[in-house]
Amino acid sequence: MKTIILLGDDIFLPVVRYYIADQNDVLIVSSQSATLYSLHAFKEIKTRYCKNLSSRELFESLALDETSRVIICFAHNDILISCHETLREVNKDVPVVIMGLNRQDFKGIAPPHNTALFSVEHLVHKQLESLWSAIDNRSRLKRLRDINEACENILILIQHDPDPDALASGLALRVLLGRNKQTAPIATFGEVTRSENQNMIRLLDIPVMQITAEDLKKYSKIAMVDVQPPYFKNQALKADIVFDHHPVSEPCDAEFKDIRTACGSTSTILGTYLIDGNFKITQRLATALTYGIKSDTMSLERDISDTDIEVFTSVYPLANLNMLRQIENAMLAYHEIGAFVKALKNTTVADKMLFAWLGTVVNDDIIPRVADFCLQIVGSEWAFVTGVHDRKVVCSVRNVGYVKHAGELVQKAFGSLGSAGGHRSMAKAVMPLTQFKKYFNIKRIADIEKEIMRCVLTAADS
Q1: Is residue 264 domain-shared with residue 158, that is, in the same domain?
Q2: What is the DSSP secondary-structure string of 58-126?
Q3: Is residue 144 part of a domain?
Q4: Total structural domains in the chain?
Q5: Which residues are within 8 A (CB) of 37 and not within 5 positions of it... i.e. 6 or more apart?
Q6: What is the domain range of residue 276?
Q7: What's the rounded Cα separation, in Å, for the pair 65 and 81?
Q8: In CATH, what number is assigned to the domain containing residue 77?
Q9: pLDDT for 216-229, tens place per residue?
């Protein structure tokens, strides 16, 4: 396989010379003698002078076939177009990479299936952005280590019924801090109820302590992952370290804080620290992070960023896929099956919005699970699933991603009644039951769904 490089401008030489050093059969054609002279150090590289690099005679003399590779490098759009068009007149099958300085150079070029466009601008910009991000992460990591070194122990606190993202993030933070189960335990005020999350804890050995507010006094620092202090309203907690990807509902003071709402999971954020800090990511940790990202983004189909994809592709090859299957294929509890049945019996569809009513539920975690399921029903672009748990009205929202912003819609509909907000395709509202009933003058719990539907439809039309 031979590679032919049409080098129209010297500025591309530093870019291509790193590539040609690894190729066996390379011919560089240039209209500048000085450029060709500078390549004499590469004795295995053939060179050729040609005054007109877009001439038909040149391409005919190169004897190109579909096993050849051609790289066309020009800093001017008009020459790029002319050169590519002439090449395609001579041979339409040869694969070609067109290299310009910036994306503007590609105006007027409609590449066929075997032509790719490459801009130096994009290469430099992408690479530098990646480097700045890595430097920023390492700087933050240093601050995190300074906090870590100054204390005896750190409690890693997660939400009441922790999900896979929280569990994986807690494990990742412990690795970043260089601590163990004794000096940085993972804890919750609630308990783990979902069977797949229990499987994850058992299979990956991630013990989670159930604590009370009194237990907090035993720890020098409190770190929160996948959650923020306002979540713990009754305890009025202060966090020293916060990692989260959820929108900020109320400002919180913390010695260290990294909240990135653009990321689809908190596991992604912790993953960037592990990667940029050159930490060894064990199979156990990789499996946890893979499942954490998958579960919070619905297998990279919901609210993801480039960073989510980059971290996922880094940790997925290191994960134990057999163990992932064991975690994901957890069984439903009997009362959970009943919730799905009840949802299907109590659904209403209006303007491609599906509303389901679950009544009083044992665990509020079943509400978003049913919402995910309802979005699969044909004709639904939205799923609003509502239930009552612990004297609170909980509404979980899902949408297909190309309609209105779910978080903004929920905030508009229920923001004055309680906590409401979220991402583009997933959101949640939690409202005190007594306040909700009083505001809408509701006598029966069964009438809650009607008011949920009315508020949503009004907010959607406004």
Answers
A1: yes
A2: HHHHTT--TT-EEEEE-SSHHHHHHHHHHHHHH-SSS-EEEEESSGGGGTT----TTEEEEEHHHHHHH
A3: no
A4: 3
A5: none
A6: 151-328
A7: 21
A8: 3.40.50.720
A9: 999 999 999 999 99
Compute, in degrees rounded to 10, the torsion defined by CA atoms 55, 59, 60, 66.
-150
Residue 129 lies in a domain: no
Q: What is the CATH number of the domain that holds 401?
A: 3.10.310.30
187 with 256, same domain? yes
Question: Cα-atom radius of gyration of the chain, to the nearest Å?
Answer: 29
The pTM is what? 0.67
| Contact between 4 and 29 (Cβ < 8 Å) | yes
Distant-in-sequence, close-in-space partners of 326: CB < 8 Å, separation ≥ 6? 199, 203
Express each pLDDT in 128-167 by its tens digit. 888 999 999 999 999 999 999 988 999 999 998 899 999 9
What the block records as the tokens of 446 is 């069964």
Residue 204's nearest CA partner among 96, 320, 331 is 320
Whether residue 184 sits in one domain with residue 324: yes
Last-in-domain residue among 328, 343, 376:
328
Residue range 24-59, pLDDT digits in tens: 889 999 988 887 877 776 667 888 999 999 999 999
Count the Cβ atoms, other than its own, within 10 Å of residue 2. 17
